[in-house]
Design a protein that fits this description.
The structure is a single chain. This protein is 27% helix and 23% strand. The protein has 346 residues and is α/β, with parallel strands linked by helices. It comes from Xenorhabdus hominickii.
Length: 346
Amino acid sequence: MKALVYHGAGKKFWEEKAPPQLIESTDAIVRIVKTTICGTDLHILKGDVPTVDAGRILGHEGIGIVESVGSSVRNIKVGDKVIISCITVCGSCRYCKRQLYAHCKDGGWILGHKIDGTQAEKVRIPHADNSLHRLPDGVDEAAALMLSDILPTGFEIGVLNGRVQPGHTIALIGAGPVGLSALLASQFYSPAHIIMIDTDDNRLSVAQQFGANTVINPAHQNIVEEINKITDGIGVDVAIECVGIPATFKICQDIITAGGSIANVGVHGKSVELHLEELWIKNISITTGLVNTSSTPMLLKSVQSGKISPEKLATHHYPLSEIERAYDIFGNAAKEKALKIVLTAE
């Protein structure tokens, strides 16, 4: 089969690999129908994730058709169309019993990280009963693809951790795919005012289409001054950090109100300054996390009912065989006006 293989920092090739085989009785083999590229994949290619070995097939998002299952798989059948969760769930360890699936002792984020991933014609999925979600007929495949990772991430780590409530003023820092996913999901809770902050005017325009009331571009505007105008100098109730750099985490600290919540979603590769000398008296909460994907069934029902339309995040479509070109586009997302790229197997 063909797969996108990592060969060390800056090196990736679409090449022949042996097709996956069932190893454990709880495994399934899934033929990929659609997959996509994540910002985490770019971090891997930069060499920022040293736990990824050369020779690894990348990717942790996808939908596909089940081709074979192990003898212990009960709920997933050959022929099922499924959403592949970015988080592998054994269902029985101490973390899984607390719904902290991201920290599963025999899973968590392993696809495209510690085992071969989804940017391939086929993939092996451990603990298939818990790590695959059957896709109902009629659900848009591009929408379903967003349920692998980014929509649950924005919802769980941004909206739920940030404790967004009706009437809140919230700010999202970073209008990339995860930030826009958090924007979509935040509207479940009817915040009174949604502010999106980014330096990319195209993405800010998309944020307005998705429901942002105010957009702020720090290249042209003073963030704190603009937030103070909106909130009468009080600050926002929830700040959701969706970039993962020191400057954006500082913005969250600068704009949060007393009693507010900072929810960090971004992947940080460098240390940040935490200004406790200013924040200790403000009674704020700061949360971090890796998605558990426990919300995927609920989000799938919301997609089915038309309450949310994550397929809007898909801006580019390519055949899976053109994945190297797609990486070039995604790596220049601002110039190419790219959000999520849908790769479809021929």
